[in-house]
C-alpha cells in the first residue's frame, strides 16, 4: 500500500532539464493574455494564429500564445511582456513542441527548480514509507530510518502548517479592519489557508501520487509494447492483420474507459483470479485492483498510442522502405531498421499527448478502489468537508506531474533528434 | 553467358501497357544506357529487374537463373539500385546508410561493416562525410552515398534510375565522374539517364525505349551518328539540345 519505489524515481520526465525548460507561470500568463486579446481585439485576430502550421504533434496549448501575439499585433496589447509571450508561443508552434517549449533562461530555471523540488519531495516521501527500503535498512541494523509501518493517515507532514495559519490569521485580521476593500486580502488569506491545508494533507497526497505515477508509467510502457506492432499491422499488415488491428483500435477508442475498467473489475473474474496469486497484495506488491487498473489502462492506451504511431509511420517517405528492400532487407527488417526509427521519432509529440492524458485518466482507477491521487483527495474531502481546498491542491499536483512529464518528453525529443528528421531536429 | 537476359517482358498497370515485349541481354562489364521519353517504361524496367515490381509476363535471368525462382532478398543483394530521389535512410549517417545492408543482409560484424563502409565512402570521395546525416549533405554527396551503399554490397549489377535528374546542374558532374570510374573499373551497369555525355563516353550499348518498346538499340556512336529510326533521331536531337552531347 505504501510507497515502494522500484523505478519510480525515474518518474515521468524525471528531473526537468534546465535547457528544455519552460514556465508554467508563463503558460498561465499566455492564457490570460489570449483572453484579453480576444476580448478587446477584433474577434478574428485571436483566431488568426498559425492554426494550420502544427503538424502531427501540434498541441492546442500552443495556440493561446499565438493568439496573444495576434492581440498585440492589432494594437490592443498593453506592453512588451505580451509581445514576448506571443513570440514564445509562436516558437513552440513552429517546433511542434510539447505544450511547454522554449522560454527565456531565467524562467526556465525557475520551473526547473520547482519541478526538481516537487519530485525530490515526492520521491523522498515514497522512500520514507517504502517497505523495500525498510527491509533493507532493518537488515543493515537501522530499523528506524524508514517508516513503512505507518498507515497513510498516521503519517506526519514534514513542513509545519503553523506559519501559514498564523499568516492567514494576520491577513484575516487586517482584512476585517478594512471592511469592504478587502477582496484582495480575502483571496490572499484563502491562499495561505490552502497552503496550511496542503502541508497537512501532503503525506496522503504523496501516497496517492505514488499510485498515479505507478499506474501511468507501467501502463504507458506496456501500452507502447502493444501499440508498436499494432500500428505496424495497421500500416503494413495485409487485409486480415490490418483489419484485426483496426477493429481492436476502434472498439477500444469507441467505448468509455470507465466502462472498460468496470467490465474488467466487476464484470470479469479477473480481480479474484489475480487475488488468488500468492504474492499479490503482500509487502511491496500492490493488491489486485492495481493490476486490473494496469490491464485496463494498458489496453486503452495501446489503442490511442497506436493511432499516434500509425499516423507517424504513414508520414515516413515510402522511398525509405523501398530503398531498404533494394539493399536486400526483408520487409520486416526494413520496418524495424528504417521505418520505425524514423516514425517513432515523429510520434513523440503525439505520444506525449497520450502520456499526459493518461496521467489524468488514471484518476478513473479511483472507481475500482485503487487509492491513487484522486481517490485520496475524495477521501480527504469527505473527512474534512474542504472539497474546494483538496481538489485545488490535487489539481496543482496533477499540473506538476503533467508539466514535468511534458518537459521530460521534450527533452527526450531533443536527445534523440536527428538533423533533417521531423520539425525540431533542424 | 550473359549476366542479365531480359526476355519478352510485359508489364501493365491496369489498362495501361508500360512494357511490351522487351528483350535484351548484357554481358559482365557492360554499361547499358537506357533513354526514352518520360512514361516510356524505363523506371518500370529497372524495378522489374530487382523485383520491386513484378512482371506480368516474360523471363529475366540473372547469371542464368530466372529471378522469379530466386529469393527476392537474395536477388536484391546481387542487384544494387541507385534512386533518382537518393532515398538515403534519413535517420542514419552516411556510414550508417552503407553499413545497414552489410550487417543485416550480409551478416557482417559491426567493425568489419564499418571499415568496409568507410572504404567505399572514400572511393566515392566522401571519406570526410562519413558521420554526416543525409540532411547535412548536398544532393551530389547524397547520391554518391547512394552509390557507395549499393556498391558496398558487392553486387553483380547496379541499376541506376535517373541518378542525376534530381540534382542541381553544378552537382551532376561529381556523380557522373563516380559512375564513369565504376564503368572503367568493369562494373556491370544498367543506367536510365539522359546525360548524353556519359552515354557517349561510358556506355557500351545505348537503348532507346518508347511507349514500352525498344525502338532501337546499339553502340552509342551508331545511334548518335546513324540512327535507323526517325523517332530515335528526333528524340536524340531534342536531348542533345537540352543536355548537351559533346
How would you describe this protein?
The complex is a heterodimer of chains A (426) and B (246). With 426 residues, chain A is an all-alpha fold. Chain A is built from 16 helices and no strands. Chain A is globular. Chain B has helices at 42-49, 72-78, 94-104, 110-123, 139-152, 169-184, 196-202, 220-225, 230-243, and strands spanning 4-13, 16-26, 31-35, 57-62, 65-66, 79-82, 157-161, 189-192, 205-210, 213-218. A 6-stranded mixed sheet of chain B has the order 6-7-8-3-9-10, with helices on both faces. A 4-stranded antiparallel sheet of chain B has the order 2-1-4-5, with helices on one face. In chain B, β1 and β2 form a beta hairpin. In chain B, α3 crosses α4, α3 (94-104) packs parallel to α5 and α4 (110-123) packs across α5 (139-152). Chain B is globular, with a radius of gyration of 18 Å. Chain A binds chain B through residues 317, 319-320, 322-330, 333, 337-338, 341-342, 345, 418-421, 425-426, and chain B through 50, 52, 73-74, 76-77, 80-81, 83, 85, 87-91, 100-101, 104-105, 133-136, 149-150, 153.
How many strand elements of chain B? 10
Strand % of chain A is under 5%
CATH level-two architecture of the largest domain in chain A:
Orthogonal Bundle
User: How is the largest sheet of chain B built, in terms of strand order?
Assistant: 6-7-8-3-9-10
State the helical fraction of chain B: 25-40%
For the largest beta-sheet of chain A, the strand count, sense and barrel status come to: none
Q: Please give the radius of gyration of chain A in angstroms.
A: 24 Å
The helix/strand series of chain A, from N terminus to C terminus, equals: HHHHHHHHHHHHHHHH
Low-pLDDT runs of 5+ residues of chain A are 1-99
Oligomer: heterodimer
As a percent range, the share of strand residues of chain B is 15-25%
Q: How can the largest sheet of chain B be summarized?
A: 6 strands, mixed
Number of helices of chain B: 9
Amino acid at each position: 500500500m505504501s510507497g515502494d519505489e522500484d523505478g519510480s524515481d525515474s518518474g515521468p520526465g524525471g528531473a526537468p532539464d534546465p535547457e528544455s525548460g519552460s514556465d508554467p507561470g508563463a503558460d498561465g500568463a499566455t492564457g490570460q493574455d489570449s483572453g484579453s486579446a480576444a476580448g478587446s481585439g477584433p474577434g478574428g485576430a485571436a483566431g488568426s494564429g498559425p492554426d494550420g502550421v502544427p503538424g502531427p504533434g501540434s498541441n492546442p496549448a500552443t495556440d493561446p500564445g499565438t493568439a496573444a501575439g495576434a492581440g498585440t499585433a492589432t494594437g490592443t496589447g498593453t506592453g512588451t511582456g505580451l509581445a514576448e509571450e506571443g513570440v514564445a508561443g509562436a516558437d513552440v508552434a513552429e517546433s511542434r513542441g510539447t505544450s511547454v517549449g522554449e522560454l527565456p533562461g531565467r524562467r526556465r530555471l525557475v520551473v526547473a527548480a520547482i519541478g526538481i523540488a516537487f519530485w525530490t519531495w515526492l520521491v523522498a516521501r515514497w522512500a520514507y514509507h517504502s517497505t523495500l527500503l525498510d527491509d533493507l535498512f532493518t537488515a543493515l541494523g537501522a530499523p528506524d530510518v524508514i517508516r513503512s509501518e505507518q498507515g497513510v493517515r498516521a503519517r506526519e507532514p514534514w513542513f509545519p502548517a503553523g506559519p501559514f495559519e498564523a499568516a492567514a490569521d494576520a491577513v484575516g485580521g487586517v482584512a476585517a479592519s478594512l471592511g469592504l476593500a478587502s477582496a484582495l486580502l480575502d483571496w490572499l488569506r484563502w491562499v495561505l489557508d490552502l497552503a496550511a491545508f496542503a502541508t497537512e494533507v501532503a503525506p496522503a497526497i504523496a501516497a496517492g501520487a505514488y499510485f498515479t505515477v505507478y499506474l501511468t508509467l507501467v501502463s504507458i510502457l506496456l501500452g507502447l509494447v502493444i501499440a508498436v506492432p499494432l500500428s505496424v499491422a495497421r500500416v503494413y499488415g495485409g487485409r486480415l492483420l490490418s483489419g484485426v488491428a483496426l477493429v481492436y483500435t476502434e472498439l477500444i477508442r469507441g467505448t468509455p474507459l470507465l466502462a472498460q475498467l468496470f467490465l474488467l473489475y466487476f464484470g470479469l473474474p479477473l480481480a479474484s483470479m489475480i487475488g488468488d496469486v500468492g504474492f499479490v497484495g503482500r509487502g511491496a506488491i500492490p493488491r489486485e485492483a492495481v493490476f486490473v487498473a494496469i490491464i485496463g489502462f494498458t489496453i486503452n492506451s495501446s489503442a490511442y498510442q497506436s493511432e499516434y504511431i500509425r499516423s507517424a509511420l504513414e508520414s515516413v517517405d515510402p522511398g525509405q522502405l523501398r530503398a531498404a528492400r533494394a539493399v536486400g532487407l526483408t520487409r520486416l527488417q526494413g520496418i524495424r531498421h528504417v521505418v520505425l526509427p524514423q516514425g517513432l521519432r515523429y510520434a513523440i509529440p503525439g505520444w506525449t499527448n497520450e502520456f499526459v492524458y493518461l496521467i489524468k485518466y488514471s484518476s478513473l482507477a479511483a472507481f475500482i478502489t485503487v487509492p491513487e491521487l484522486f481517490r485520496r483527495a475524495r477521501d480527504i474531502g469527505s473527512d474534512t468537508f474542504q472539497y474546494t481546498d483538496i481538489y485545488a491542491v490535487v489539481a496543482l499536483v496533477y499540473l506538476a506531474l503533467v508539466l514535468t512529464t511534458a518537459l521530460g518528453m521534450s527533452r527526450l525529443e531533443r536527445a534523440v533528434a536527428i538533423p533533417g528528421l521531423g520539425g525540431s531536429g533542424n | 553467358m550473359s549476366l542479365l537476359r531480359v526476355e519478352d517482358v510485359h508489364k501493365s498497370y491496369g489498362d495501361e501497357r508500360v512494357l511490351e515485349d522487351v528483350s535484351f541481354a548484357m554481358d559482365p562489364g557492360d554499361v547499358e544506357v537506357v533513354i526514352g521519353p518520360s512514361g516510356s517504361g524505363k523506371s518500370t524496367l529497372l524495378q522489374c529487374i530487382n523485383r520491386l515490381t513484378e512482371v506480368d509476363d516474360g523471363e529475366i535471368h540473372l547469371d542464368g537463373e530466372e529471378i522469379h525462382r530466386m529469393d527476392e532478398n537474395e536477388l536484391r543483394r546481387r542487384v544494387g539500385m541507385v534512386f533518382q530521389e537518393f532515398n538515403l535512410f534519413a535517420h542514419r549517417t552516411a556510414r550508417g546508410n552503407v553499413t545497414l545492408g552489410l550487417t543485416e543482409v550480409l551478416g557482417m560484424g559491426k567493425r568489419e561493416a564499418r571499415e568496409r563502409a568507410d572504404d567505399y565512402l572514400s572511393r566515392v570521395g566522401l571519406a570526410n562525410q562519413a558521420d554526416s546525416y543525409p540532411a547535412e549533405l548536398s544532393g551530389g554527396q547524397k547520391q554518391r552515398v547512394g552509390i557507395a551503399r549499393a556498391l558496398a554490397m558487392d553486387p553483380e549489377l547496379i541499376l541506376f534510375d535517373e541518378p542525376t535528374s534530381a540534382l542541381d546542374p553544378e552537382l551532376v558532374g561529381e556523380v557522373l565522374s563516380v559512375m564513369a570510374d565504376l564503368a572503367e573499373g568493369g562494373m556491370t551497369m544498367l543506367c536510365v539517364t539522359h546525360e548524353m555525355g556519359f552515354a557517349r563516353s561510358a556506355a557500351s550499348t545505348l537503348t532507346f525505349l518508347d511507349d514500352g518498346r525498344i525502338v532501337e538499340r546499339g553502340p552509342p556512336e551508331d545511334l548518335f551518328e546513324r540512327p535507323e529510326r526517325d523517332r530515335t533521331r528526333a528524340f536524340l536531337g531534342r536531348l542533345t539540345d537540352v543536355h548537351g552531347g559533346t
